[in-house]
């Protein structure tokens, strides 16, 4: 048991937990971060290629320098080198029957005028709804929570190709089919990213505009070095959080050590709360969120290549598929390091089917699909292929067995939503990217949430001190 009473214990050394601890320390408060893993960064996880030619991202990968101020400040402060996402060239598209074609970046697939107009109408309908504050008033929230995102699209008059496009969006953002997510949940996510157009954009201001040559985990490592020595306790899994008295909490680690603090900040994903016992139990509204918020299937399969062969076809590396197993892919190369790669996303139903294959069949399925998408054939892609790396999140209990972030199905949170989860309860405060108002699910959202949560703790500590 610790022999001192800390001001705050932070659970989790992802970006939100690290930011919360830094804000608290800068205000002169004593803090310790308890992290179950052997590293900092949470769902930022940058790994070195086996051949040493730079890093690739198993987790969060993209940011921008215009409307993501918190993350961009760290990029500048830490002197991190950015890589602009490649948008020069054509986008590869595959329909549900396996027919492939290219279309200009920033344009629309060649599905014919009627289908394209239908897709545009649905896109604009989702865009308008997500950016209208009236959509999220109490009565509207409850109504939208009662229908799936697919039903929302159908009610908007979406035809076959438009529904397939909406499915592509939902799978690509959440790893879930639009039948599994409430309309409210999807629109809230789109709102936080400045609309569905921006959240899918690789251009300036968009969610996928920039990458970091040294990897996004370098942000977490950089923040950790700004903290006082000894603040972060790695390999320290939290098993329980108990209220010992009106002003003291005890946080017990798996090793049996107990940390005492006046306040606790939890910075873990919603589904990961199942790993921790709370005494007294969390209130019903939070229990509803924890038990209903869920991940879909979202797997990164990063293919490393000798050369960027897709560019010789005039392609930028961005692709989309209605058929699968690949939902979409992006060029995640760093040319100056000869680090050439396509990051493929296996999502929702097609992703689960792909994951059930053996390793050899999984690899062949992706290489064959890339050959079709970029018009070069399987043998050409295979001759360029070096190796692959697969993301680990669906086997990671501390990530909550999934990625990128949890969303809720119909009827779960219309009356409360993520707002109920992020509200403090007694001396416990809740932060994390899935609880952010802006850029929910992104690194920017995590940093904003962590900072805001720390400010709330500081306010409460000050009030309690004044009362004493």
Automatic annotation (TrEMBL):
InterPro entries: Amino_oxidase, FAD/NAD-bd_sf, Flavin_amine_oxidase, Flavin_MAO. One of its GO terms (molecular function) is monoamine oxidase activity. Keywords: FAD, Flavoprotein, Oxidoreductase. Its cofactor is FAD. Its EC number is 1.4.3.-. Residues 15-457 form the Amine oxidase domain. The keyword Flavoprotein applies. It catalyses: a secondary aliphatic amine + O2 + H2O = a primary amine + an aldehyde + H2O2. FAD binds at residues 16, 35-36, 238, 434. SUPFAM superfamilies: FAD-linked reductases, C-terminal domain, FAD/NAD(P)-binding domain. It comes from the Eukaryota. Belongs to the flavin monoamine oxidase family. This is Amine oxidase. It comes from Aspergillus bertholletiae.
């Amino acid at each position: 048991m610790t022999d001192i009473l800390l001001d705050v214990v932070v659970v989790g050394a992802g970006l939100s937990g690290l930011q919360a601890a830094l804000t608290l320390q800068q205000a002169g408060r004593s803090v310790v971060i308890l992290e179950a893993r052997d590293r900092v960064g949470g769902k930022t996880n940058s790994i070195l290629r086996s051949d040493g030619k730079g890093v690739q991202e198993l987790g969060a990968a993209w940011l921008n320098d215009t409307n993501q101020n918190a993350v961009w400040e760290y990029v500048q402060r830490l002197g991190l080198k950015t890589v602009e996402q490649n948008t020069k060239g054509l986008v590869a598209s595959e329909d549900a029957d396996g027919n492939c074609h290219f279309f200009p970046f920033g344009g629309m697939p060649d599905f014919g005028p009627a289908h394209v107009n239908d897709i545009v109408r649905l896109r604009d309908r989702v865009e308008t709804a997500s950016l209208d504050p009236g959509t999220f008033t109490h009565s509207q929230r409850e109504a939208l929570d009662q229908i799936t995102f697919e039903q929302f699209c159908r009610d908007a008059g979406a035809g076959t190709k438009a529904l397939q496009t909406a499915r592509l969006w939902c799978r690509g953002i959440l790893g879930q089919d639009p039948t599994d997510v409430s309309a409210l949940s999807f629109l809230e996510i789109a709102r936080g990213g400045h609309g569905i157009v921006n959240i899918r954009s690789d251009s300036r201001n968009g969610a996928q505009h920039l990458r970091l040559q040294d990897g996004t985990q370098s942000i977490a490592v950089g923040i950790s070095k700004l903290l006082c020595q000894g603040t972060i306790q790695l390999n320290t899994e939290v098993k329980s959080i108990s209220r010992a008295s009106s002003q003291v909490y005890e946080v017990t680690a798996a090793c049996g050590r107990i940390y005492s603090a006046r306040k606790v900040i939890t910075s873990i994903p919603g589904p990961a709360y199942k790993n921790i016992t709370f005494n007294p139990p969390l209130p019903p509204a939070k229990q509803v969120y924890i038990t209903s918020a869920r991940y879909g299937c979202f797997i990164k399969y990063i293919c490393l290549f000798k050369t960027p062969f897709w560019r010789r076809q005039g392609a930028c590396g961005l692709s989309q598929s209605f058929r699968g197993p690949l939902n979409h892919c992006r060029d995640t190369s760093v040319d100056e390091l000869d680090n050439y790669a396509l990051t493929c996303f296996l999502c929702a139903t097609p992703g689960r089917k792909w994951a059930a294959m053996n390793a050899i069949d999984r690899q062949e399925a992706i290489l064959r699909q890339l050959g079709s998408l970029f018009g070069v054939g399987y043998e050409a892609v295979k001759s360029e292929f070096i190796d692959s790396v697969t993301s680990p999140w669906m086997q990671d209990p501390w990530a909550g067995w999934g990625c990128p972030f949890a969303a809720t199905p119909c009827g779960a949170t219309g009356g409360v939503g993520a707002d109920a989860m992020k509200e403090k309860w007694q001396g416990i405060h809740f932060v994390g990217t899935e609880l952010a108002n802006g850029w929910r699910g992104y690194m920017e959202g995590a940093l904003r949430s962590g900072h805001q949560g720390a400010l709330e703790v500081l306010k409460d500590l000050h009030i309690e001190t004044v009362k004493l």
